[in-house]
Amino acid sequence: MAANPNLAALETSPSVEWTVREGLLPYPEAVDFMERRAAAIAEHREAEMTWLVEHPPIYTAGTSAKESDLLDARFPVFKTGRGGQFTYHGPGQRVGYVMLDLKRRKADVRAYVRDLEEWLIRALAAFNVKGERREGRVGIWVDRGGGREDKIAAIGVRVRRWVTFHGVSFNVEPDLSHFTGIVPCGVRQHGVTSLADLGLPVTMQDADVALKNAFVEVFGPVST
Question: Active site includes 73?
Answer without folding.
Answer: no
